[in-house]
Amino acid sequence: MSPRHFLLLFAVCFVWGVNFVVAKWSVSGTPAIVPGFDGAPPLFFAFLRFALLYAVLAPWLLPVPKKPGPVVGAALAMGAIQFALLFLGLRYATPSAIAIVVQLAVPFTTILSIVFLKEQVRWVRWTGMLMAFAGAGLVVAKPAEISFTIGLLAGVGAAFAAAAGSIFVKRVEIMPIPLQAWIGLISWPPLLIASLVFERDQLSSIAAGGWWFVLALLFTVVLVNVFGHGSFYWLLRRYDASMIAPMTLMGPLIGVIAGVVLLGDPVTWQLVLGGVLALSGVGVVAARRSKARATETVIQRPR
């Protein structure tokens, strides 16, 4: 990989990593930054994200997919369900821990591929999956802190939703940017309905965030989705997935560092040991999976 393209990949991973902190602030607030802002309701924030994503990418909706079923399945799983759970998780857990837990999307995808796509898996990837789940288990296991644990379990749910969406993506016959547009269009209506049913004071909550909240929302859509995923797929066309996929682990590492530096996330032995185990296991699974199928679509993990 050329130095210029590595810097582009690093920029993508940096944006993805910092987004854990940006999203955490968006749904839980930080009085020191914006007094009186306690965060936007998570479901409503997810709705705003996908409504804006749809508005930005609407010109790419046409032509209409010939097989809409997989597109709808991918959009609901990777869009509405994944990010509803992700933002709920970030409401109650630290971005450092969430950044590690959501990487379970990679072994989850392998398991679902075994069940639904009859993919063959050898001992190396099984070992990687066991390492990933053991590491995530260490991070999640907090019996004395129930709310913290609930937040991380929501993060695990987001990882599973991303993995389920990747199974649908394998049957999608449109390019990544049009797929992003359809994810935006299909995701915002159910998220809006869910927010109206389960949440209150949505408009007053985001109004308290002022321009900082607007900037955070633009960051998650323009930089994370449009720039991040667009650049990532551009690089995938030029390099083997076996090279690119393991290098994306820079993203969660940056997320952990950003959480510790910017929000003061606690650094415990469980976070360190669990993070090393989980990310090492994910790296093994991603590298072996990509090597076996260099042309297959790399899954879109929660960002």
Automatic annotation (TrEMBL):
GO terms for cellular component: membrane. It is a multi-pass membrane protein. Keywords: Membrane, Transmembrane, Transmembrane helix. Signal peptide: none annotated. The chain crosses the membrane at residues 39-62, 69-90, 96-116, 123-140, 146-169, 181-198, 210-236, 243-263, 269-287. PANTHER family: AMINO-ACID METABOLITE EFFLUX PUMP-RELATED, INNER MEMBRANE TRANSPORTER. This is EamA family transporter. It comes from the Bacteria. The keyword Cell division does not apply. It is found in: Membrane. It holds the Pfam family EamA. Residues 7-140, 150-285 form the EamA domain.
